[in-house]
Amino acid sequence: MISSITATTGGQPVFRRDLDPNALRLTRRKTINLLRNCKNIAQVPPIHAKIIRTFHGQDAFVVFELIRICSTLDSVDCAYDVFRYVPNPNVYLYTAMIDGFVSSNRSADGVSLYRRMIRDSVSPDNYVITSVLKACDLEECREVHGQVLKLGFGSSRSVVLKLMEVYGKCGDLVDAKKVFDEMPERDEVAATVMINCYSDCGCVKEALELFNDVKVKDTVCWTAMIDGLVRNKEMNKALELFREMQMENVSVNEFTAVCVLSACSDLGALELGRWVHSFVESQRIKLSNFVGNALVNMYSRCGAIYEAKLVFKGMRDKDVVSYNTMISGLAMHGESFEAIKGFREMVNRGFSPNEVTLVALLNACSHGGLLDIGIEVFRSMERVFHVEPQIEHYGCIVDLLGRVGRLEEAYRFVENMPIEPDHIMLGALLSACKIHGNMELGEKVAKRLIESEDSDSGTYVLLSNIYASSGKWKESSEVRGSMRDSGIDKEPGCSTIELDNQIHEFLVGDTTHPEKEAIYQRLQELNRVLKFEDVMFVYQ
DNA sequence: ATAGGGTTAG
């Protein structure tokens, strides 16, 4: 990217003499349109060069557009290169730049730019305040809140709504509620934001109470409540609310469909998912990428990989998320080579794989036992795809080594990693130790897990099983005992299954289902089949 | 010229 400069000769800016105000306006219009049509950051530099020639990088309207385009094209550094050479940026430019930082997950840069703006005595408006609030943590939010009151933006609707939202996101329900209560007209929009605050803080009960108090609820309000329930893992309640919504004749849109599909994915509610699919088609709800991706995800996670592929194939403007969803689904179903094929197609079509793509691809390798490919992918992550390996990627490699039985190597890998292992990674290693019968290493890993205090009941159970299977009965029962003492055995395992549009829920040790005898008998049969298949697999 | 309630991948 070319750096914008103020062209000077002997200290004086040079302006093109042949541009009268009308011509300037026309050129500005044309340039902005050119910028808006850019699909790729590579198309921007020639236009930028022209902007420097024509406007000397000083026309706020054009620069504003330039900053926004660079940001939307995932090139916030280019946007900043433009911004930092503007001598006295106005509040519009600050807003665009802060927004750019926020959407690239660079909140700290957004906040410090806002501070610089205040220091440079540029008066904030309600737009820039809502922008910077998105970047704030709790302390910064309080600071901006103070300024808001001092500067008289306390009655700006968008500012107040954003303040509530950020307080909620930061877990400060008290202040969110305070702002809400102080609003002169608490309409359904404000209530929707407050419902989200409750959901963000895990207060489902309060969210539902407020929801029930809202007199006239529109699609957005219903959708927010359904989504809040989904995010808090109250799937059945979410689906119940969805049915209620339709009985109240509130129209369902693509947002609602995506939320419900996400609930179906979690519950494995294939039939309801299919129903939402046909509902989307019959209601002519826009089959956007959001909906398409949610459908692909729902079908894969409900075990219907064929239908997932069908939806995926039918999507015309697939994006990175579409590919990631499909590759993850294929990996989940053990179709490792299909997943790799999907990855190749994605790269060939010019998409840049991101960190999620690489997790999916590594998972595919792991599930297929493709050690060499997996290691190769991991090694090329940074060099070829410019993705810095995160804990999830390291975890995939540990999983991969563990699965193929190279446990010592996996342990060495963990010890040599530049980051600390988390309980998920150690848990994967632990179960690999159990599967491959490496008791010494298993014991070492389990102890490390329990010391880290991040362990769940599963760790204790596995450690106790490891002791039991090597005849160390005393140690085994001691582990069970310390599990009870630590109160960690309280979390009940839960699973659900959908049958004839009914979601059946089962808790660990649950014997309340009317058909429990038939269910447990069938379970035992399945266990025998699985054991047999496992043995066959080993001796193949 | 800008924002202002709800969505997908691990």
UniProtKB/TrEMBL annotation:
Q: What keywords appear on the UniProt entry?
A: Repeat
Signal peptide (residue range): none
**Protein's organism:** Raphanus sativus
Example GO biological process term? chloroplast RNA processing
- Database matches in NCBIfam families: PPR
- Record's keyword annotation contains Repeat: yes
| A Pfam cross-reference name | E_motif
Lineage in the entry? Eukaryota, Viridiplantae, Streptophyta, Embryophyta, Tracheophyta
Q: Which protein is depicted?
A: Pentatricopeptide repeat-containing protein At5g59200, chloroplastic
* Ranges occupied by PPR repeats: 90-124, 218-252, 319-353, 456-490
Superkingdom: Eukaryota
Which GO-annotated molecular functions does the record name?
RNA binding
